[in-house]
Design brief:
single chain; alpha+beta; two-stranded antiparallel sheet; about 40% helix; flat
């Protein structure tokens, strides 16, 4: 999905969301949240 010209990712799996926000947060923290 795109917001203007910027691609965004929508995650619907609760386990994957938990992994991203807790375990892998340092890898994604500089990406920005809408």
């Amino acid at each position: 999905i795109f917001t203007g010209m910027t691609p965004i990712l929508i995650v619907k799996d609760p386990d994957l969301i938990k992994d991203i926000l807790i375990k892998d947060f340092p890898k994604f923290s500089n990406r920005g949240f809408p």
